[in-house]
Amino acid sequence: MATRVHEFDWPDRVVIGTIGLPGSRTFYLQVRTGSQVVSIALEKQQSALLAEKIDEILDQLTAVDGNPFSVPSGTPVELVDNDQLEPVQEQFRTGTIGLGWDPTTSQIVIEAHPLTDVDAGDDVASPEVDSTEAAEKLLVRMPVGAARAFTQRTREIVGAGRPICPLCGHPMDPDGHICTPPGP
């Protein structure tokens, strides 16, 4: 089976957004170029880790003598995107995510693959599905300024969820919280 690749080389928009209320939000990575829009679902933790790792890569690049890739240390104001997600048609739920750097184009590269039976924790994959090759994937290349804006927005979206209990560290619901502080 051939892999369908949703590829975006210089996207107009790359954002993390959510649908739903805190406590039951669904996170989406949404990419758009012109009229082509792809939305993939991911977990809150995947979103947070993606932003963290992108910032780590960018911070390492700024430390290179002379900053040859012109990586901004902060988010360029003109690239801040606080708009809502465009209408979402979920392409797939994300399993594994690869992250890299392309020095020839000075872009962050994100490669996302669908959740598989193996990713979900099943011991045996379905015999009808070749688990060695995904049916589709998302491949995004974004410039360094857009990557900084992406990480800023992602951190804000992740942080906009339920408040964390200072005693037990678990999220608190608006209708109550049963706190079980950690033991000694």
Describe the structure.
By secondary structure, the protein is an alpha/beta fold. The chain has a single domain (4-159), classed as Secreted effector protein pipB2 fold (2-Layer Sandwich). It is 19% helix and 30% strand. A hairpin with a 4-residue loop joins strand 5 and strand 6. The termini are far apart. The model is unreliable at 122-132 (pLDDT under 50).
How many individual β-strands? 7
Low-confidence stretches: 122-132
How many helical elements?
2
Count of individual domains: 1
Written as H for each helix and E for each strand, in order along the chain, the element string is: EEEEHEEEH
Task: Work out the strand percent.
Answer: 25-35%
Strand order in the largest sheet: 1-7-6-5-4-3-2
According to CATH, the fold-level topology is Secreted effector protein pipB2 fold
Could you say which overall geometry the principal axes of the C-alpha atoms support? Answer: globular
CATH class: Alpha Beta
> Biggest β-sheet, characterized?
7 strands, mixed
Radius of gyration: 18 Å
Structural class label: alpha/beta
